[in-house]
Structure formats: structure tokens, C-alpha cells
Amino acid sequence: MEAMGTIIGRGIHVGVIFRGKKVKDDNKTLIQTGISCDNQDGCLGFTLEPHSSQTHSSFCHKEPPSMVPCSSTLKPIDGCNPNPTMDYLGNNSTLLLETHASKVNNSSESACEPVPFPVDTAVEERSSDSKSLVTEQGMDVGTTNVVQICLKSNQFEVGHRRMRRPFSVDEVEALVHAVETLGPGRWRDVKLQAFDSVKHRTYVDLKDKWKTLVHTAKISPHQRRGEQVPQQLLDRVLKAHAYWSLSSTPKNLPSPPPTKSI
DNA sequence: TTTAGGG
DNA sequence: CCCTAAA
């Protein structure tokens, strides 16, 4: 915030770059220039020029509806960010650029970045708004930062593959608990009961996770990857799985939940 | 829209 | 995670 405050306080120029070319006429709106009307596979970019703009610039690709983590002085952006989760919580400043081009929105996810957790809940990745949150890190006054907002070749083209979000042990615990009481096959309810506020976890995701959990619980510990799920939890998975598999009425009365003893 | 499974 | 036939 300090960095941005310094920059903005001293006046900052915001230029628009379309398809690599800087848009000269500042009086025209995105719609007037046609930038936001068609589905051209161009790229929208913004140049933030504090003062007498220099040349140093860094950027990363991003799309309209999501965040555009951008590091001006750190690691280059060659695809995806090394560490998705953290990295955006420190003393970073945030600049919000709103490109309210009428219907240009549409949703697709970040092309190279996982949405920083902090804002994750605030701004949905699948948001239909055309906002771009640019997170600047250690932006040096005097440098020109360019944020590329590439519109996929075809805005209607199905979005990218969603960012991978490994389930945390806590999430697994919540999922297991829900399945123990509701039983598998009722993913909609599981979602509502245990992940209602976690928008990036759909009931299909939960169903898939349960599938992998059952598998994980069956293989030997050393074959498991990622964050290790407590064996105790995996035992509950097998327990519930066995219980609901034999139950004659799997999806009906959540009769005596699995013997959650031990 | 959900469920259920394979990809 | 994605893709989708079925329900």
C-alpha cells in the first residue's frame, strides 16, 4: 500500500495496450474502440507509468475475470507461479483495475495464477465481472509495469482447466465427516453441509475426492503422495465406505452412522 | 441440475 | 480435474 500510495500520490498514468499496441485515444471507451465488442483473440494490457516511464517492465498473462498477480521485480512469469498458495500475503500492495466493458466479461480462470487465498472468497474466480486485480510486489517507482490481460482465442471457448487445489487435511476431515453421516451418493448435500462456503469445491469435486480417498486408504502409505492424510482419517474413510457399500438403503435413512469408534 | 463413472 | 450419459 505504501508503494502504491507513493506512486499514485505522485500521479500515475494508466495506458491501455491492445494487441501489443498502445491505444492512443484516451477519450474512447473500450467499447468505442471495439476492444470489448468482438471475440478477437487479442490481448488487453495496462501500463502503469508512475512518472517518466522507464522501460523495465514485467507482466504475466491473465484474463478478465480473475486476478492478475504480477511481480515487477521478482521472478519472471513463464507460465505459472512457482508457489501458488502463499506469496501474496506479505507487504504487497493491491491495485484494482476495473474494465467495465459492458458485456465483455465472460469467465475463464487465471491463465497462470492460482487466486491468492485472501481474496479467493471475496472475488470468485468464475465471476462474471470484468475486474482485474493486480497485485504488485515491490513495485519500484519509476518503472513501467505492464499487465497483460489476454483474452483467450475464443471468449466462448471453455475456460482453462481450473487451478489445482489439493485438499487440506481439514477439508478431508470435513468431507469424511459429511460422508459418514450422509453417505456417498449425496454429494449435493455433502457440499451444502460441509463446503457450502467453499465456492471452488463443487459436489463433483467432493465426489472425486472421496473416490481418491478410498483409493488412498487402500494403498500402502509410501505410495501416497502430497500432504499426508492421517491414517486415522483414512481408516474412517474405509469404515464409512464399507458401511455405505453394504447398507441396503445407501441413500436413504442415514441410519446408525458408521461405527466411528476406532 | 445431480448422480455416477470413466477419462 | 474434466467430460458426460442418465436420471
Automatic annotation (TrEMBL):
It is found in: Nucleus. Residues 159-214 form the Myb-like domain. SUPFAM superfamilies: Homeodomain-like. Residues 159-218 form the HTH myb-type domain. The gene is LOC103502076. It comes from the Eukaryota. It comes from Cucumis melo. InterPro entries: Homeodomain-like_sf, Myb_dom, SANT/Myb, TPR1-6-like_ubiquitin, TRP_plant. Keywords: DNA-binding, Nucleus. This is Telomere repeat-binding protein 3-like isoform X2.
